[in-house]
Amino acid sequence: MLAAIQAHSDDVTLFCAGTVAKLIGEGYTGYLIRLSNDEKAGKTVGQGVVQNEIDNQEAAKALGCKKAFSFYYRNHRMDDCAMIEIRQRLIFLFRLLQVNTVFAMDPYDHYDENPDHIVAGKAVESASWMASPGGGHEYPEQLKAGLKHCQIRERYYYCRSPQGHNLVNRVVDISSYIDHKVRANVANKGKGPAGDNGLRLRQELARQGKKLPLLGNDDATANFQYVKHFLMDDFRALGKQFGLEYAETFRYIGQEPDLRQAVRKYADGHAVPL
Ligand SMILES: [Zn+2]
């Protein structure tokens, strides 16, 4: 069970959509959780919240997610929100959905200029730990109401700033899921560099009596090709470094060793009669 958490509707699609789609393709059930309302982030003034809500739902479908959630905190103001509330809402969802793998912005990517990214990463980091028994019996009323602890065993931290790419320890081959990633980005029509930009370029050239063969003969092809050929360059370059067609990179934190089990194993193997 994975949860891909993002501050904004285009974070997951741009930075980790290939890996999310790949894990879902391999058998994971996935959920997309957006923390902001993306207000003021629409290409048309006043349309941000509505269009980005639609985009978030459509991107989730393109990734193969079962459902998308939105918390609707105000865009670029999340550092003014109570961290403890964001954390608690995440703990609730992690327990409800029994999440064991999370994707989030790296909370230690100090060069990221967007305050929401750091807030989202920090909230996921602490919620991942506190939702589990190892983090204490936090919010016992949730447990009384029937929710169970969950165990977040894997954390994939993605980042936006180029500096952050130096702090990675996991490279994922997304070559066979690059088209999923492209489709998720095309779904982001309200904001970001993808959406309908391909058809806009096609229309602009047509007004000048020209066309780009790359963009094909219809709007859907134009949008797809625009994203694949102009916006996936970073991931093609990342892949090239590792002999792959396309790759995404992460600061990955895996399962901690089970100390109690290790002690039991040692005791079973070494105990002698009194
Ligand atoms: Zn963002």
Named at the architecture level, the CATH assignment is: 3-Layer(aba) Sandwich
User: Could you give the count of β-strands?
Assistant: 7
Helix content: 40-55%
Q: What small-molecule ligands were found?
A: zinc ion
How far apart, in Å, are the first and last alpha carbons? 46 Å
Number of helices: 11
State which percent range the strand residues make up: 5-15%
Structural class: alpha/beta
What's the gyration radius in Å? 21 Å
Average pLDDT works out at 92
CATH superfamily: LmbE-like
Q: SSE order, as H and E? A: EHHEHEHEHHEEHHHHEH
List low-pLDDT spans: none
CATH topology value = Rossmann fold
The largest sheet, given as strand count, sense and whether it forms a barrel, is:
7 strands, mixed
- What's the overall geometry? globular
Provide the CATH top-level class. Alpha Beta
Q: Supply the number of structural domains.
A: 1
| Strand order within the widest beta sheet | 3-2-1-4-5-7-6
Characterization of this structure:
The chain has 274 residues and is of the alpha/beta class. The chain has a single domain, classed as LmbE-like (Rossmann fold). It contains 11 helices and 7 strands. The protein has helices at 11-15, 17-25, 48-63, 83-97, 115-130, 140-144, 178-186, 197-207, 219-231, 233-241, 259-270; strands at 2-6, 30-36, 67-73, 101-105, 154-158, 170-173, 247-253. Helix 3 links the parallel strand 2 and strand 3. The protein starts with a strand and ends with a helix. The chain binds zinc ion.
Summarize the helices and strands and which ones pair or pack:
Blueprint: E1 2-6, H1 11-15, H2 17-25, E2 30-36, H3 48-63, E3 67-73, H4 83-97, E4 101-105, H5 115-130, H6 140-144, E5 154-158, E6 170-173, H7 178-186, H8 197-207, H9 219-231, H10 233-241, E7 247-253, H11 259-270
Parallel strand pairs: 1-2, 1-4, 2-3, 4-5
Antiparallel strand pairs: 5-7, 6-7
Zinc ion (ZN) binds next to loops.
